[in-house]
Amino acid sequence: MVLRQIRRQRYMMNFETVIGLEIHAQLKTRTKIFCGCALSFGDPPNSHTCPVCLGMPGVLPVLNKKVVEYAIKMGLATNSQINRFNQFARKNYFYPDLPKGYQTSQFDLPIVEHGSVEIDVDGSKKTIGITRMHMEEDAGKLIHDEREPLSYVDLNRTGTPLLEIVSEPDLRSPQEAYAYLKKIHAILRYLDICDGNMQEGSFRCDANISLRPVGQEEFGIRTELKNMNSFRNVQNALEYEVRRQRDLLLDGETIIQETLLWNPDSNRTESMRGKEDAHDYRYFPCPDLVPVEIDEAWIDAIRKTLPELPDERKNRFIEEYNLPEYDAVILTGSRELADYFETAARLCANAKKVSNWIMTELLRELKGEDISGCKVAPEQLGELIAMVEKGTISGKIAKTVFIDMMATGKDPAVIVKEKNLVQVSDEGELQAMVEEIVAANPDQAEQFRQGKTKVMGFFVGQLMKKTKGKANPKMANELFVRTLTE
Amino acid sequence: MQPYTLTIAESLDHLQKKELTSKDLVESCLQRINKTETKLHSFISVFEEKAMRRAEEEDNKRQQGQSGSLSGIPISIKDLLCAKDTATTCGSKMLENFISPYNATVVEKLENEGAVIIGKVAMDEFAMGSTSETCAFGVPDNPWKEGYITGGSSGGSASSVAGGQCLASLGSDTGGSVRQPASLCGVVGLKPTYGRVSRYGLVAFASSLDQVGPLTRDVRDCALMMNCIAGYDEKDSTSVKIDKGDFRQSLEAGVKGLKIGVPREYFGEGLNEDVEKIVRNGVAILEDAGAEVMDVSMPHTEYCVAAYYLIAPAEASSNLARYDGVVYGYRDGTADSLMDMYKQTRSQGFGDEVKRRILIGTYALSSGYYDAYYKKASQVRTIILNDYKKVFEQCDAIISPVAPTAAWKRGESADDPLALYLSDIFSLSANLAGVPGLSVPGGFTADGLPVGIQLQGPHFREDILLKLAYNIEKSTNLANVLPEIQQ
Ligand SMILES: [Zn+2]
Fold first, then answer.
1. Within 10 A of B368 (CB to CB), how many other CB atoms are there?
2. Closest CA to A17 of A225, A194, A201
3. Is A335 among the domain residues?
4. What are phi and psi of B447, to 5 degrees?
5. Do A287 and B88 touch (CB under 8 A)?
6. For a Cys staple, B22 with which of A84, A96, A378, B55, CB 3.0–4.6 Å?
7. CA distances (Å), origin A339, targets A78, A195, A355
8. Mutation choice for B interface testing from A35, A46, A53, A60 by most B CBs within 10 A
9. Closest to A92 (Cβ–Cβ): which among B90, B208, B321?
10. Of A249, A265, A297, which residue is a domain's last?
């Protein structure tokens, strides 16, 4: 037992994790990929359908040009090759959420190939390859009756455009996978082509993961992880799967190549075995759609519309606001957060202070919620920080005001006024109280005069008590020193 | 004069001169249907009331000077063209109760020009066949000889036009399905260039080969129908933006100086003597009229059948996957699992020929076989297209038989699907290459069965085919010749 433990630990050091991600991003077009139905979420079942997306006999698809435009955007934003000639193919399989019996996708001629993004994990940078991106249609949804053995089919989602983004197996840890996923998410959001909502399924991720002894070139047997509907789940599932595979390998067992579902309740991956046959999708070029041909002029026009992307913005934040790289990476990690920072920073001179506030107070109080739902507008945060800078309130008071703001959404000036929190900086007013306190505490005053400067804390504390924390702390210090040494 | 015996052009003339009303014309066809349908079995559904109502509407419009180019003309459509709120069965039990919620583009175009859709006609199940015998709702009979096939798959289209039940019909042609029944029933049938006519609302058999085409009593009517149905459609990405002009324009221009190729590969073993004689006569007619006739070669013709019977079933296997019993169509209600529901629905809903082709197609696309079958067939397709390109550098059109024989007795080919596939040999290549092909009546066999002559031309040159066919028709005097149908 002991021996085995030791052996395990020895080997443990020597496995390398290999992860590749397949991301499905729903594109935020107005209409579906092959028909005129509007995209919807949460509307009554089958209320956004037409003969085309219902797969009625005789209908034909017409490609939504916006989908191509968005795919090109994403390709350009990831330094990818845009294939001037690409083609749709049919992926054939039977399932009730797939009314045509095939998914119109791309196979051997995808629109985007050979791209990359840079990720940053614990301060070290790494380039992750993107194998390909292709356009395809989403399937519908099955709703299973809980009382009767019945399933209902909702085809509202059928035909929602998807961009599938396939990474190279370049990721070497769950942390890297997480950073890569965040990066792709940020780029999609910066481009404003995807909602990026993992809970609602507009941004989905499957992972392929295997382990191999360090130094071995050949990949180990991989498993495919599905059903990870949050960033946290992706990392947890991958971490779990690393441990599971490592334990199996250490016990001399072989990994079964299979699809596993992440169960966020039990924090385990579970086998789908039995539910899935070996699929032969019988891909072939879709004869109903002509090949997509993209000319240089179109690509150039799209390139001109590209917004500032996360990496560019990060570099600008470092230069323009003098932020440390660490701050800049976090702030630019989402477009909304970066926008928030810039709006707040515009209202107060000290950008680093704004960054500190966002990274500590704001992100802590958001408790993982999205910044878009934050009650405190960036202008209000900027105003609050400016009040501290001007000495209107103390930094300490500001933190309690901020918690109030998060709860009520009120302006900081209103809260400060309502609660009478304006810092007391009136010298005369403070001097009177200082003299009073010194007079009332002769022992401590004597100690100070004899060089025990530590008691200063006691005196300032007394003054804060008297002013309910509103005394200007810098002034308080000065006044006590002057009074005690006179 | 019985109105149903008129051509479209003649009818329009009479209507214009107020010698005839649409109501008379449609009524005459409906009566003819009543009289002959027990023998011909052309129709799967007849829209008596609606057709009479439409005829009246067209008569009113004509009085107000607002009539379209096919105003009041009774036309049948193959039962795989969707017409809103009517059954579209595709000749299959699978779609017996399917009501289309929308109109095919060609149906919309017909109605916009005032045509009266009189009913929907029989066909091989999902257009898979050359005899119309795989239709689940009655098999049409050849108007020229009782108990003989009409050809297929647009057999009901051909018998309804030849039998005087309507003035024209729309069929579809994936490997000869308009031209071959036109030939076997003695009417004009045109498969337009791929992309010339919208496929939107045409229930797909093999999407890269399917094309809607007219069957008519003479060549001028064919041109009239083409004027109506041709043209780019934004709902069909494979339709082509190209000027269609007026297909009637060149009919009378004469054929002097046109070069006509006679591909020697089309006149080999297995070609019926009478058929060959009739086609050779067609060649002579064109030569007499001033065309230059030349011997040409299409060296890869023999590979057409093999390539076609991989590509078409492969596409069909995917196109017919939607008939799974979930959203519409036949469903076996006894199954107790999803997999069984699929299996039983498809086993019971499809006929044997459809299942045979789905199996062939599934096999041809399967991993490990794709390269040897589907991919190889696609490469052969390119080679066949090159045969056409080369031959059209030498000549303006080619002339050949449509099929190796005239119509045969019903039931004769039932046990030998391979022999039946081989009988498509002369018509498949036009679909593989996407070029237009036309069948014009050329004469009769010793048994009194009609035989058509096939003309094929370069992409989007239907005008050449129509002009040649018009000349043959003038010479043979076979325009609008209707058979006697024994009551
Ligand atoms: Zn739709």
1. 7
2. A225
3. yes
4. -85, 0
5. no
6. B55
7. 21, 16, 12
8. A60
9. B321
10. A297
Q: Nearest-CA neighbor of B365 among B302, B319, B423?
A: B319
Contact, B406 vs B275, CB < 8 A?
Answer: yes
Same domain, yes or no, for A282 and A149? yes
A56/B contact by beta carbon, under 8 A:
yes
Examine the domain organization and report whether A167 and A109 are in the same domain.
Answer: yes
Name every chain A residue with its beta carbon within 8 A of the beta carbon of B202.
58
CA of A50 to the centre of ligand 1 (A): 4
A140 part of contact set with chain B, CB < 8 Å: no
pLDDT of residue A434: 85
Whole-prediction pTM value? 0.90
- How many beta-carbon pairs under 8 angstroms link A with B? 101
What residue numbers bound the domain in which A469 lies? Answer: 427-485
Q: What is the largest CA-CA distance in chain B?
A: 70
Does the interface predicted TM-score (ipTM) exceed 0.90?
A: yes
A276 dihedral zone (left: phi>0; alpha: psi -120 to 50; beta): beta
Check whether residue A459 and residue A411 sit in a common domain.
Answer: no
Residue A5 pLDDT > 70? no
pLDDT in tens, B295-321: 999 999 999 999 999 999 999 999 999
Kindly tell me the burial class for residue A254, based on how many C-beta atoms sit within 10 Å of its own C-beta (0-12, 13-18, 19 or more): exposed
Residue B216, beta-bridge partner list = B168, B188
Find the CATH number of the domain harbouring B483. Answer: 3.90.1300.10
Yes or no: say if A117 and A78 are a contact pair by the CB < 8 Å rule. Answer: yes
Indicate whether A3 belongs to any domain: no
Q: pLDDT for B133-170, tens place per residue?
A: 999 999 999 999 999 999 999 999 999 999 999 999 99
* Domain containing residue B5: 1-487
Min Cα distance A298 → chain B (Å) is: 20
Rounded to a whole number, what is the distance in Å from the CA of A97 to chain B's nearest CA?
A: 9
- Domain count across chain A: 3
Whether A302 is covered by a domain: the verdict is: no
Q: What is the tally of structural domains in chain B? A: 1
In the reported structure, the alpha carbon of residue A229 is separated from the centroid of ligand 1 by a whole-number distance in angstroms of 27
Is residue A2 situated within a structural domain? no
pLDDT, residue A345, reads: 87
Last residue in a domain, options A297, A319, A354: A297
Same domain, yes or no: A447 and A355: no
Compute the radius of gyration of chain A from its Cα atoms: 30
| Contact call for B236 and A60, based on CB within 8 A | yes
Query: A445: domain CATH number?
Result: 1.10.10.410
Interchain pair B318, A56: CB under 8 A:
no
Contact: B88, A58; criterion CB under 8 Å: yes
Mean model confidence pLDDT for chain A: 89
To test the contact with chain B by mutation, choose from A288, A290, A292, A293 the residue with the greatest count of B C-beta atoms within 10 A, namely: A288
pLDDT digits (tens, 9 = 90+) for A138-188: 999 999 888 888 889 999 999 999 999 999 999 999 999 999 999 999 999
Q: Which residues of B are catalytic?
A: 78, 153, 177
pLDDT of residue A1 exceeding 50: no
Q: Amino acid identity of B227? A: N
Q: pLDDT tens across A387-430, in order?
A: 888 878 878 888 888 888 888 888 888 887 877 777 777 778 88
